Amino acid sequence: MNLSWKLIVALGAMALIRPLLSGTGVLDMIGQPTASLTVTLAITIIWIMIVITKNVPRPVATLAGAGLVYGIAAIIISGILSPILTGELQGPLTNPLAIISVLITNGIWGLIAGSLASLFKKISKE
Predict the structure, then answer these.
(1) Parent domain of 66
(2) How many structural domains is the chain composed of?
(3) Which of 12, 37, 58, 81 is an S-S bond match for 66, by CB 3.0 to 4.6 Å?
(4) Mean pLDDT across the stretch 76-88?
């Protein structure tokens, strides 16, 4: 079965709300780390609900892909915005191991979310 790359990219892009809220200071105003964890949980729940309601045939691969898309986008955005905002390149692009870490972390996030979606789909069919 083929993956819906349009959905994967859309879900990954949707997760960019987290760094947007962080970069604008909203998460700091709410209070860290609770705000970041709450936003991450909300994104995860939305991802799961979307793949369940759309009856996505491969939720694990779809959400793992969404996590990777998010990681890649976050790395690119950080590389573009950090020199503009701080005058120097900061973030994962300054350290190859950080790039790998970001991709692994977000891939695992998507993998866990996809596994939960798959489990919920299975339970709902019983």
Answers:
(1) 5-125
(2) 1
(3) 12
(4) 90
